[in-house]
């Protein structure tokens, strides 16, 4: 059984622009495509770093402006509305309606 080995091609840039007559034109095209992909990846990284820096600077300015505009306010409660809702429970014996009705006062059964 043969093992799969990823070999690093030596001098693949020389394949694209070299003078070796034994290379096929497909080898040269492959080397050019690899070179173009690497240059494109480097270019995209540079553009994304520049865009990320610009977004960071604009958001930092926005957050600084918002922080300057904030100020303390004294508030007074004018009226109260309905009381807040009671939290939802999954145990019906511990709910407020069962306790008010007196239904949850009996012995509890335990399982397992």
Describe this structure in words.
By secondary structure, this protein is an all-alpha fold. The chain has three helices and no strands. The chain has a domain at 8-68. The radius of gyration is 36 Å and the shape is elongated. The model has no long low-confidence stretch (mean pLDDT 76).
**How many strands, which pairing sense, and closed or not: the largest β-sheet?**
none
Given helix and strand content, the structural type is mainly alpha
Q: Average pLDDT across residues?
A: 76
| Distance linking N and C termini | 56 Å
Number of E-type strands: 0
Percent of residues in helices comes to 40-55%
Strand fraction equals under 5%
Gyration radius, to the nearest Å? 36 Å
Low-confidence stretches: none
Inertia-based shape: elongated
Helix and strand succession? Answer: HHH
| Number of helical stretches of at least 4 residues | 3
Question: Which oligomeric form is depicted?
Answer: single chain
Features:
mainly alpha, 3 helices, 112 residues
Briefly summarize what is shown:
This protein is mainly alpha-helical and 112 residues long.
Write the layout of secondary structure elements.
Elements: H1 12-17, H2 25-69, H3 96-101
């Amino acid at each position: 059984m043969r093992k799969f080995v990823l070999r690093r091609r030596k001098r693949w840039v020389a394949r694209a622009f070299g003078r070796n007559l034994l290379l096929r034109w497909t080898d040269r095209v492959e080397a050019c495509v690899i070179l173009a992909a690497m240059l494109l990846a480097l270019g995209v990284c540079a553009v994304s770093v520049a865009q990320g820096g610009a977004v960071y600077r604009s958001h930092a300015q926005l957050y600084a402006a918002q922080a300057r505009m904030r100020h303390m306010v004294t508030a007074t409660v004018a009226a109260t509305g309905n009381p807040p809702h009671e939290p939802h429970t999954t145990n019906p014996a511990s709910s407020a309606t069962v306790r008010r009705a007196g239904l949850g006062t009996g012995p509890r059964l335990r399982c397992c």
